Amino acid sequence: MPAVRAGPRTLVVPCLVALASTAAACGETRKTGSVGDKLEAKRIEVTVEKVDRRTPVPRSDITGLSLPSSGHRLVGVLVNVCNDYGAVVGQFDFELETSTGEATPKYTARNYRESFQSVRDDCERGWIVFEIPEESRPTKVEFAFDESGTNRNTQDNLTARFEWKVE
Asked: Are 43 and 37 a contacting pair, CB within 8 Å?
């Protein structure tokens, strides 16, 4: 019998009372899925295409920026982001959760030819590299995006929280 894979789940948090202290929750979109699923909110689409537990390490890196620290290893996350929102989506919007809870982004890593930097009005695909303890394993990729738009037009506000389970 073939395996059945559940699709992404969506939760939109409604605005019942628009108080200043709770305004951030208005229109918040939360979605969960598995690696390979495209998750979207308003005019942003994000796909975590792959999680590479065997990230290549360059043979010669005199800076050491693409090498793991002692007792650590690297994990690559291949993302594809399409953004028609106008606000920047960057590496800083992504986090990796691990079995030990520790993961540090390697912003200057050059482990892949195609690295993800940022995108404002288009689509961008590339790798983000994280450093994790050798004994841990990746469990989830998280994406958090907050854009308040303008004071005059709150319909443009966007709060998106996506997560992909790593199996």
From this structure: no
Rounded to two decimals, the pTM is 0.82
Q: Do the Cβ atoms of 66 and 110 come closer than 8 Å?
A: yes
Distance CA 137, CA 132 (A): 8
DSSP string, the chain: -PPP----EEEEE--SS--TTTGGGTTEEEEEEETT-EEEETTEEEEEEEEESS----S--TT-TTSPPTTEEEEEEEEEEEE-SSS-EEGGGEEEEETTS--EE-TT--SSSSB--EESSEEEEEEEEEEEETT--EEEEEEEEEE---SS-GGG-EEEEEEEE--
**pLDDT tens string for the chain (167 positions)?**
444 445 565 554 444 433 333 344 556 899 999 999 999 998 899 999 999 999 999 888 888 889 999 999 999 999 999 998 888 999 999 999 999 988 999 988 889 999 999 999 999 999 999 999 999 999 999 999 998 765 556 677 889 999 999 98
Residues 6 or more apart in contact with residue 124 via CB below 8 angstroms: 80, 81, 83, 116, 117, 118
Rounded to an integer, what distance in angstroms lies between the CA atom of residue 157 and that of residue 86?
12
